[in-house]
Amino acid sequence: MGGPLGQHQKWSHGYFSYPKLEGEIGPHMQFNGKEHLVWSLNNYLGLANHPEVREADTQAAADYGMAYPMGARMMSGNTKHHEELENGLGKFVGKQDAFLLNYGYQGMVSIIDSLVNRNDVIVYDAESHACIIDGLRLHMGKRFVYRHNDLESCEKQLEHATRLVEQNGGGILLITEGVFGMSGAQGKLKEIIALKDKFNFRILVDDAHGFGTMGKTGAGTHEEQDCIDGVDVYFGTFAKSMAGIGAFVAGDKHVIDYLRYNMRSQIFAKALPMPMVLGLKKRFELLKSQPQLREKLWQITNALQKGLKERGFDLGVTNTMVTPVFLKGDLYEATSLTRDLRENYGIFCSIVIYPVIPKGLILLRLIPTAAHSLDDVQRTLDAYSEMGEKLKAGHYRERLAEV
Question: pTM of whole model > 0.85?
Fold first, then answer.
């Protein structure tokens, strides 16, 4: 099996890659027949198994089935519920209008493909999510990448882009993320928007992790940084804070109307089924009406990150709920310590190694949620303390040599 990830499939499949987590979605699930404390689900607000959400999903499926509405929304698949959800989302994130998308990943790819033509130039952050990169690959014009969250590099690329569009008559689209899902760093939205005083560009923000979690109301990272008006096109997904499927894009009405009639992946795709839409409406209602869910998320996040730092762990530059733990070690130590955490401590978290991150580093990514407890945090801190000492003592390399 080729590719940077596929090369590991023979020994990783079913355990490190494509693992099966079973049972009710939540902090405690079954893996390989044993109970594990899970830190790998983007169920930020704990809505996946909220009783009102389960009831709404079940009732909508009973009332409508999964087929309704039939057809693409432009032709025969539109409903008042789709439109009500769009209207609510647009207002919530501070934009004039919003448009529902069937999938998050495909949605971002399609937004980029629809917004720019061959004369336009794209400037983007070097650590942009794969969906942004795949959208860029469809772009037939020029693109310039700036170093991650580096304003000086960003300005330099905007200078290159400006010279180019002055020649060909195009425009500039700058793309970044609200919350970077691996590092947990916020994109420097406010500082980038301030560059509009020097350059003529529009900014598209992928706020998959920030929607529902960041800002005083949960409206997103642009609310957190007090720069809502400066974001031209805002993208949020339902797969994380809303524990659903699909996404939305929001912006000025004329921009959203343009996307509504030009985004081919939506124009020619069947509408989101009614159970999903009604379930999303309930999730959205709870996101807005129960701020205690977001408060609990941050209580768990702060306790986890504070405890890890006190124990000497490197969390990088995270200033969000995404909690990366950076360790020094090779592939063998990475797999050995991860297996130890799972088999002997019952702690399940995602492991990231080269080529996603540089050689010599191991990244264990923890995703806190409102469904976790402070007891879960303490159990994890105790396990990580012991794991860290074992790693320093060379235990994981010795264990592997013995096997």
Answer: yes
